[in-house]
Every structure is written in C-alpha cells, then in structure tokens.
Q: What sequence folds into this?
C-alpha cells in the first residue's frame, strides 16, 4: 500500500484520517453482537440492513431459524470483510 492509500490529508484543517482495511475476525464478532453489523464494518451497508431485518424476523418467527440465519450472517460477514481487504 502506498502512503496515499492509507492516509487522507486535509490541508485546511490539518487533520489526518486513517482508513483501515476490514478484518474478517472483527466483522465476525460484530455480526455475532448485532446481525448485519459485520457487513456494515466491511462497507456493505445495504447487505447489513438486509441481514439485520432477515435475522430479526427469523428470531421473531421461530428461534431455531433465527440461530441458523445468525450463524450464516456471521460467516458471510467474515468473508465479506476478507474480500474487501483483498485477503
């Protein structure tokens, strides 16, 4: 990665913004805590919203499909972050 890929410089305000690449492990933990949050961490906002609504509905409908969908969401968030980081 070059210096331009890691930092954004704003001359007027004198601040430096650091962008980090998403981590599969962090995205998976976030997805366990709140369905869809791992996808948001990986930069996929629409997918995160869809996973949140689908998993919440599955938990509301019947508990077992909720657990299964939550596990699938966690796995998917891990791979979305790995793909986004190029790993």
A:
């Amino acid at each position: 990665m070059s210096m331009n890929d890691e930092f954004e410089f704003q001359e007027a305000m004198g601040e430096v913004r650091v962008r980090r690449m998403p981590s599969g492990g962090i995205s998976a933990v976030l997805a366990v805590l709140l369905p869809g949050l791992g996808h948001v961490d990986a930069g996929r906002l629409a997918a995160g919203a869809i996973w949140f609504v689908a998993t919440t509905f599955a938990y509301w409908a019947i508990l077992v499909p909720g657990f299964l969908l939550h596990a699938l969401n966690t796995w998917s968030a891990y791979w979305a972050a790995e793909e986004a980081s190029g790993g």
Summary: The longest strand covers residues 7-10. Residues 22-84 form one domain. Residues 1-7 have pLDDT under 50 and may be disordered.
